Amino acid sequence: MAPVLPLVLPLQPRIRLAQGLWLLSWLLAVVGGLTLLCSGHLLVQLWHLGTFLAPSCPVAALPQVALAASAVALGTGLVGSGASRASLDAAQYPPWRGVLGPLLVAGTAGGGGLLVLALGLALALPGTLDTGLEEGLGTALANYKDTEVPGRCQAKRLLDELQLRHHCCGRHGYKDWFGIQWVSNRYLDPNDQDVVDRIQSNVEGLYLIDGVPFSCCNPHSPRPCLQSQLSDPHAHPLFDPRQPNLNLWAQGCHEVLLGHLQGLASTLGNMLAVTFLLQTLVLLGLRYLQTALEGLGGVIDGEGEAQGYLFPAGLKDMLKTAWLQGGVARRPAPEEAPPEEEPPKEGLPEA
What we know:
- The chain is an all-alpha fold.
- The chain has two domains: about 15-140 and about 255-320, no CATH class; about 180-230 and about 245-250, no CATH class.
- Helices cover about 55% and strands about 0% of the residues.
- The chain has seven helices and two strands, in the order E-H-H-H-H-H-H-E-H.
- A two-stranded antiparallel sheet has the order 1-2.
- Helix 1 runs antiparallel to helix 2, helix 1 (about 10-50) packs antiparallel against helix 6 (about 255-295) and helix 2 (about 60-85) packs parallel to helix 6 (about 255-295).
- It is rod-shaped and about 100 Å long.
- About 30% of the residues are buried.
- Its main location: membrane.
- GO terms for molecular function: protein homodimerization activity.
- It comes from Monodon monoceros.
- It is found in: Membrane; Photoreceptor inner segment.
- This is Retinal outer segment membrane protein 1.
């Protein structure tokens, strides 16, 4: 049976293959390390912004799988560099002969599978993030006033810090604050007729105002921040409510966070693609080098040509042989029939 994708490797191509693999392996180790850092950075960002993501949003799966895939790639690069360098010396190569087989299996099945899974998660992340941020930010805005409710005490502080740090206001814009009650009932005067009228005029009994929290204010604005009566064109002289970006953050937090996290995920996806390409080249090169050296007894500068290959026999023949062997093994052995007794020989009469 002929090997799969055979490649004849004379002496000089074998040496160049080993030298090139040493360089590619170190490049894979560096890229795997950078991918590891990118995965960890995205995981930390998602942990910090977890309050503003829906609990059912599985966005943390991408950096977690990418961490495992990049760790395997880093290990593959380090071991591949050592094996390719040792292959140039017949005295150093024998200990590595038993390492290359498990490395190729782990790098192909484990590392390759994890990289493909991580790339798929990176492609599906934008839609998942969009839905998760939409629901999570809506819940955060609704919990803003609940500073004394157990489990929600930090909601106001976290949302204020988010708006100040990322220069955003509301979910999709500053007007999102107009549709929710963000002032706690504790700070409302029940004797104030304006407060009573606003609560009674709302079907759900909420205190709604056309104002925003202080964290929506843009400190670069040339005038003091305007937080209330933003929809009244006559309430503030020389202020045009049609241009609130001069006084408040113009973008909503959904757009800002989505762009921020998608940028990190895009960078990680590109790093994963480069890692996958380098790991494929390194594993293929190590397999050809391994099979070529096995034909020479582990001596790279042995005389004659060597043949490297991916599999020792055709895949079709290998599968067929395995299937037939499995069928023979499962087939019950026929019961052996008892040997037939020979009829007794009649004795000759004595003369």
